[in-house]
Design goal:
127 residues; elongated; transmembrane; DUF1304 domain-containing protein
Length: 127
Amino acid sequence: MNLLSQILAGFTGLALISVGILEIFFHGDQRFHRIFLIRPDDVRPARMWAMNVGAYNITFGLGIAVGLWLVNFSGTPASGSAIIIFCCACHIFLGFWLWVTEKRLLVSAIGQALFPGLAVVFYVLLH
């Protein structure tokens, strides 16, 4: 896996872990209403979903981190590349799906799909 794809995937992993932490611990904080669209009255009903989506994001971010470790420090860089590409491909789709399901979150959808999309594009182009 080329360096540019690794850097983009690394930023994706960091973003996923960061957003996952926000979703788990701050989904009810109205400073993040623009990101989560959760009104104060809906915090309790949305809690289970926010907690689970946050855990998924953290898990995908850690998957990318494991993939990067395998690419750079193990004898199986192809395995690491496969994990990274899978995680990034999932978030390309999930970014598109976020936009399909909630048009108001276009910027978030682009943010979710852009770096993983570029990581995959540069992996294919420079592989």
